[in-house]
Amino acid sequence: MDVALQGIRKSYGGTAVLHEVSLTLRGGRVHGIVGENGAGKSTLARIMCGAVAADSGQVAVDGEPAAIRSPRDALRRGIALVTQEGAIVPGLSVADNVFLGGGVSLGDRRGRRVRGLRDPAGDRRRFGRLAARTGFSLDPAARAGDLPLVHRQQVEILRALAQGARLIALDEPTALLPAPAAERLLRLARDLAERDGIAIVLISHRLDEVLSACDSVTVLRDGRHVTTAPAAELTPQALLRAMVGRPVETLYPEPAPVPDDAPVVLAVRGLSRGRAVRDVRLEVRAGEIVGLAGLVGSGRSETLRLVFGADRPDAGEVTILGRPATGGSPAHAMGLGAALVPESRGEQGLVLVRSAAENLAMASLPRRRRLGFVRRGAERRAVRAVAEPLGITGPHRPAWTLSGGSQQRSVFGKWLVRSPRLLLVDEPTRGVDVAAKAQIHRLIADLAARGVAVLLASSEVEEVLGLAHRVLVMRDGRIAGEFPRGASAEDVLTRAGLR
Ligand SMILES: Nc1ncnc2c1ncn2[C@@H]1O[C@H](COP(=O)(O)OP(=O)(O)OP(=O)(O)O)[C@@H](O)[C@H]1O
């Protein structure tokens, strides 16, 4: 199946987000779409999949104009979108999400049963076949809302396949995955293209994976189509130049040395919670960046949550600047100077119906003043002090309309306005483009240089090794090793059980 996008235009509130973009996606091929945050990648994918209406232009399927007005229309035409955050119906089982796809795709959160009666035994067989085809091991009876984001994405892929999709657009599918799982997913994408003739669209900020997984790559810049070229003729540098239109600094900033007399800001001893975190011991001094590497589920994020008081430990002790913080609450930890930039910005980081400016201003105010309306003055100050330096575009629009990168920067900014002494950061650059990534790295390095203690968890081993003074590797909830900055990624991955 070929899908041609012709002269697609889209504006939001008078701002053009896509300018006459044309692109043909062919069955049996993997097409990459790259571009900086806000370049229009997701909007293009949403238009093709019926989640957003174009202002003009058309979508043609196998040469015939196709009126795609909803995700259901798109799915009927064989076009499915798999998003980063997962458009599943949380209250339904995995199997129901997969098989009721046509009826429950985006916008129908109650999951109405549009197909009438179901055949449970048939569904089980079909589910088994799909699971075998994809290599996903999901429990069909599990409640979809209980699944972690990475598994919700698998549910969406199964749903697309169960509904017979011939074009599957994957919007940043590997952003959350550790290296081996990302490789498996990309292999699956290639296999679906080659064996089943499905057209795969891969939107990603990881240029190396785009180049290795795709047949052709399209570059968008500021809503314009810059080029489409065979991946074999491109290099990461050429892609970057096309994306950004200027040379980009991609080296990690050298962290400032930690003074010998720098006080210990965070001390953790014997910290344990169930099987997730076991007997963790670590220290972070003022000005020091300590990295936490490890697989998803190795205990990285859980350790940060325990330190921040978001979860209660079964045992162990946390002190922040010498004051006890064990098993307190986020409010208590914040009172001691801690800040947590969480992994999932949509769920934990931002009030999405408020603007980035309001989110920033809310974070800057004392707790008791945070309810009700935020004063315009506080908003203006927050925009000047944080949103502008961080390059957050559209700080006055509701946060849900911001590009993924601007959302991530807003979450970061929210904590910066509070001048923390201890910064706990989880996946700081997920879904962030190369230029913004460099900005966030610089920001972390600058904060540390000003004496902030940073505990940084990331699934990108290169990121932790590049930024941190030293790296602790977690495996099965325990600290399995420690490496200095500049150690080889291979060694860290081996210790983490990834290789
Ligand atoms: N519903 C909306 N209302 C207003 N503006 C929007 C809306 N959705 C997207 N935009 C804007 O359109 C532009 C393109 O956004 P889009 O999400 O398509 O970019 P992207 O290339 O996918 O970025 P990222 O890599 O950060 O996900 C951004 O400036 C974004 O803020």
From TrEMBL:
Pfam families: ABC_tran
Keyword Transport annotated: yes
InterPro entries in UniProt: AAA+_ATPase, ABC_carbohydrate_import_ATPase, ABC_transporter-like_ATP-bd, P-loop_NTPase
ABC transporter domain residues: 3-247, 259-496
Swiss-Prot/TrEMBL keywords: ATP-binding, Cell membrane, Membrane, Nucleotide-binding, Sugar transport, Translocase, Transport
GO molecular function: ATP binding; ATP hydrolysis activity
Protein name, as recorded: Sugar ABC transporter ATP-binding protein
